[in-house]
Amino acid sequence: MGGVTSSMAAKLAFFPPSPPSYKISAEEATGLLTMPPFRHRENVEILRLPTRRGTEIAAVYVRYPMATSTLLYSHGNAADLGQMYELLVELSIHLRLNVMGYDYSGYGQSTGKPSEQQTYADIEAAYKYLEESCGAKQEEIILYGQSVGSGPTLDLAARLSRLRAVVLHSPILSGLRVMYPVKRTYWFDIYKNIDKIPLVSCPVLVIHGTSDDVVDWSHGKQLWDLCKEKYEPLWVKGGNHCDLELHPEYISHLKKFIFTVEKAPSHRNSSRRSVDRFEQSRRSTDCFEVTRKSTDRRENTRQSIDRPEKLKGPDYNKSNVEKLEKLRMSFDHIERSRRSVDCLEKPRKNMEHQLDRARKSVDRLDRVWAG
């Protein structure tokens, strides 16, 4: 019975483009994967990733220089990577982050057949690649789910407690609720987002069009109401199910959200990791300061010796005083060494200035989106 229900749900939920809008080919000399009809880009990597259920999914990874966040995009039920490619590249440019998009099993050049459980394995494969091959940490990853893509997105987000953020684009409460206004969750329903959203602990942005004729705006509104950590939602006035990217407020609101979550305390801590190494080196030299302070008592002792020295006259044995003087000079040398460590702060400030200049130069690309 469960298999029959799952099969029926798959027929209602998944509409992979046929034929696929792209191909994947490998260069004979290098083995480099390319994605016709799109030209090769140095910052874009075409991938084939194995899943725990035995399929192999196609994926695209777009790198952005000096990015501090990575966005994992799960697309809707009637698109594939070929149709999403340009959007993924544009999001990387305008949001200034790395972006990974992938095709569900049975979509595009991915093998197998689509199902709810298979999409969970698909997003896990993409996430695993980001962590193990790209070096992305959980607290640097933003999950983005569009329409049916909100299903695998929330399933993964509910199981990861340190994600940077989640974006839900025209999301669904559940598969059955798209077709019928049911008030409870049934065992045969798929993508039970309504039950998983309260388990998500990171900031959540919900974007939905008020004129959506595929997934009613009430789905997004109810999911936002159930969020544990709400962010100001974007209700696109007059927006439909597949045109929200065309509205100027879409990219501007996304930018504001990314900026906010990147500047949150958890990000400031992670972004300063390299600086902390300098701080730790600096703190390690502070032990010299403690030692130097402990010699202050010797300095006081030396001063106390000076008084008897005056009383005893020039024939007094000065060897002990000379030893103390040499010891004081050695600690003065240590103090100069400690001060030299402070120069590590200057390169860090110069690097921050260069990063700021580089990011400002990218602002010119905003005109492309606005146009």
From TrEMBL:
InterPro entries registered for this protein in UniProt: AB_hydrolase_fold, Hydrolase_4
Q: Which residues form the Serine aminopeptidase S33 domain?
A: 70-175
Residue ranges, annotated region (Disordered): 289-317
Q: Which domain of life is it from?
A: Eukaryota
Q: What is this protein called?
A: Serine aminopeptidase S33 domain-containing protein
Q: Which organism is it from?
A: Stephania cephalantha
